[in-house]
Design a protein that fits this description.
heterodimer, A: mainly beta, four-stranded antiparallel sheet, B: 111 residues, mainly beta, seven-stranded mixed sheet, 0% helix, globular
């Protein structure tokens, strides 16, 4: 069965410093992996997705993630945090059934200080 | 092009009551999935509808049921509400099994 583990429930950074949100996955097959962001009182927005093409995936708003099969990791990074990046981030794996249902991690709350 | 829309935005119900939540998919999408997001948790898959039939169901009791209409919109019904049903209910639409787009959710509070 597919699953993801987000290693940090909270991450705090200063504006302008790098962001690292960590995610490990478990999958019997080559997984489809995603990062979603959820701002307060808003729906989920797709940041980026990995579907077995390039291992370094670029997303929106300057975010990127690297798929590392040897480490079963899919960490999300951004070189320079902005105040507007403060939100909840979810690492997600797609179930490999016909529905491709999404299996979410527990989330990482990113705080950005001025 | 309107994205995924959900109604109502907020809802307060009493234990034992029944509730219906509604979702209109993004234009061109034919598949609707429902997720429950409890406070401080990641969303959990409830079920998915395609061609007006439930295609897959997550680990939720039969109190949770749904429907998809010919125009692809969908309803989520919850009977005999429990306090633990309080959550944000998210609808996601897609074309077949491709990328899912989420609506803003319905916040259900059960008192």
């Amino acid at each position: 069965a597919q699953s993801v583990t987000q290693l940090d429930s909270h991450v705090s950074v200063s504006e302008g410093t790098p962001v690292l949100l960590r995610c490990n996955y478990s999958s019997s097959y080559s997984p489809s992996l995603f990062w979603y962001v959820q701002h307060p009182n808003k729906g989920l927005q797709l940041l980026l997705k990995y579907t077995s093409a390039a291992t370094l995936v670029k997303g929106i708003n300057g975010f990127e993630a690297e798929f590392k099969k040897s480490e079963t990791s899919f960490h999300l990074t951004k070189p320079s945090a902005h105040m507007s990046d403060a939100a909840e981030y979810f690492c997600v794996v797609s179930d490999l059934t016909a529905t491709d249902k999404l299996i979410f991690g527990t989330g990482t709350r990113l705080q950005v200080f001025p | 092009d309107a994205g995924v829309t959900q109604s109502p935005t907020h809802l307060i119900k009493t234990r034992g009551q029944q509730v219906t939540l509604r979702c209109s998919p993004k234009s061109g999408h034919d598949t609707v999935s429902w997720y429950q997001q409890a406070l401080g948790q990641g969303p959990q898959f409830i079920f998915q509808y395609y061609e007006e039939e439930e295609r897959q169901r997550g680990n939720f009791p039969d109190r949770f049921s749904g429907h998809q209409f010919p125009n692809y919109s969908s309803e989520l019904n919850v009977n005999a509400l429990l306090l633990g049903d309080s959550a944000l209910y998210l609808c996601a639409s897609s074309f077949r099994q491709y990328e899912q787009y989420f609506g803003p959710g319905t916040r259900l509070t059960v008192t």
